[in-house]
Design goal:
Blueprint lengths: L1 E6 L4 E7 L1 E6 L2 E5 L6 E5 L2 E7 L2 E7 L2 E6 L2 E6 L2 E2 L6 H16 L6 H22 L2
Parallel strand pairs: 1-9
Antiparallel strand pairs: 1-2, 3-4, 3-6, 5-8, 6-7, 7-10, 8-9
Helix pairs in contact: 1-2
């Protein structure tokens, strides 16, 4: 079993035993099982999935970091939301705003453009999760 802990600046979102965890990292999806090699990676906005006793749950997460050490998985992100916590209309509006920011990115430094792309990815993950897709 893995000890999964998901933390945002505001609260500890989840602290549970899990059979597996799949995290959207900067280099792709990372599937984590017990006895996983130590890992520290950037988390990109997307859907984090964890399985407990054969039942999978999902969270829309923003950018952050994941650390795997022994059988402990610590995920530190700015936001983590379940489908029930997401206001679909607000998520769609956030995506439109982020899309506009990325479109205007040709006029701003790369760092700001990257932040805009992260915002688009985060909004898309929230919409996907809230829509049940």
């Amino acid at each position: 079993m893995l000890r999964l802990e998901i933390v945002t600046p505001e609260k500890k979102v989840i602290e549970t035993e899990a059979d597996s965890v799949t995290v959207p990292t900067a280099t792709g999806e990372a599937g984590i099982l017990p006895s996983h090699a130590p890992l520290i990676s950037a988390v990109r906005p997307g859907i984090l999935t964890y399985t407990v006793k054969g039942t999978s749950d999902k969270l829309a997460v923003s950018a952050g970091f994941v650390e795997v050490n022994g059988d402990k998985v610590a995920v530190l992100v700015d936001t983590a939301e379940t489908a029930d916590e997401i206001d679909l209309d607000a998520a769609k509006a956030a995506r439109e705003t982020a899309d506009k920011a990325v479109t205007a990115a040709g006029l701003v430094p790369d760092e700001e453009a990257a932040a805009g792309r992260d915002s688009v990815d985060h909004a898309a993950a929230r919409i996907q999760l809230a829509s049940g897709r």
